[in-house]
């Protein structure tokens, strides 16, 4: 079975060949054979924890049965503590419906003894620390590898129950030639400071063979990895662990490794431990079709990753699309948190039916999902709108000369392109599919470009993007640059050439040092502002070499970044002065913001109200008229709107 649904977890669980840290009993470190993982939460469960019985009888509470409870993560403030060990209850626990007795899953399976008389790891007896919620074991130096902490009253050292059983010298299954001795960092100089098995940094205490320079951490001694694995999802033959430092290329992902791979000598196959349970069929937000994991790409040749746009070596494992013959993705790129939706799709039928945004009635008439009460008629003529009187309800941009649908009974208008926007789509901004919705009483801030908008939006939970950003693809062609621009999400901020601001998410050129942020990508190429009677054009030229421009609205210097220019009048404007902060809010509409109710109002030479917050009369195209019980005030910018709640308490 590829995936299962158990009552112990809200998401589907997938079999895993081992578990190194269980999020039910919170025992961490080492390897435990067989378990489950949840891709959605990025957590693992021991098999016995995930399959816990709904009712048990416990030796510490024989009078009543105990029932399994699943703790909601949102109720952290109401969490209780285990009656036996005192640890905070986490995810799963057992409780008595009659008494106040509660016990976590670790204590339900193996209740702690009060003392350990003859521990292997220490010469003195150890005593259980009760009601001690946090502490580090002096052996493994981990906090949550076990729920029980014992202390030596003579040496003041603390031990987990499992760690107290570890001898000072053992023969490790991954190193049978010589015994490995329990040492501290000060006692011996080891090889590279990492565990030979898992590659993690060694703690202050570890096991070491000085003859072979073999070092292994406590977790991999306490729960060693399986020497052989038969996991068909990874490979059709049995895989064997090679517990040594060895340079190799992983056949599953194509990336280099430096130690302890699993190998099939029959097929000359090597794989990272972390790549053994890669999903087989997935959806990614950069492509509309499903991707399948391949042992190698066919045909042999030049392949380019659809996420990072770097070369994919066809001879190693990768993901490819059976519908699009030239689309492939590196294995590592495909399962990135910002790319994959964390669902394994093998055995799940594919949904092929799309929800249409409108129904055609007859001729050029349609009924759109956002305006089902009236028919919309297609206008394909060369209608040119003056000013901003006619605006699309979806993108809230003026109708200039584009084809559009208009309502036969009211003033509702949609661009033809906006009317055809899909109801659901995958997008590079989010790992889950987004849904197109309309709510004309709500303003939202687009996650991508940070513009306020009252138009349609693609959304999921607390994530919203406007339709302009939703229409962008991963590769765009912008008229400001000759090369294609690729969407990049990286750890380093990049500076936008259009505005000079820095961002982690940008569109960048692979060959040139050219970067655009989302706000500049969606700037309208042409627009109108009542300050000038002509159509304004967005100017990308480097005006430092052609002279200094001054904004005709604010009378401030225009720096080296993009600006709007009127060719007829030979004057220039800052982009912010032309557009303002509320250009994507529908004029005349009453909108709510937190506890405020405001009306979007268009300014003009004869109507330029003073902002209540900054006390200025900026020539922005739109202002907000905020309603209060006894009066109304005007707000000119997003910053002033943010400050309104603090400065306007006296108005209530």
UniProtKB/TrEMBL annotation:
Gene3D superfamilies found in the cross-reference section: 3.30.60.20, Zinc/RING finger domain, C3HC4 (zinc finger)
Keywords: Metal-binding, Repeat, Zinc, Zinc-finger
Gene Ontology MF, one: zinc ion binding
Positions of the Phorbol-ester/DAG-type domain: 10-57, 123-174
One Pfam family in the UniProt entry: C1_2
PANTHER family (UniProt xref): CYSTEINE/HISTIDINE-RICH C1 DOMAIN FAMILY PROTEIN, ZINC FINGER PHD-TYPE DOMAIN-CONTAINING PROTEIN
Protein name in UniProt: Phorbol-ester/DAG-type domain-containing protein
Native source species: Thlaspi arvense
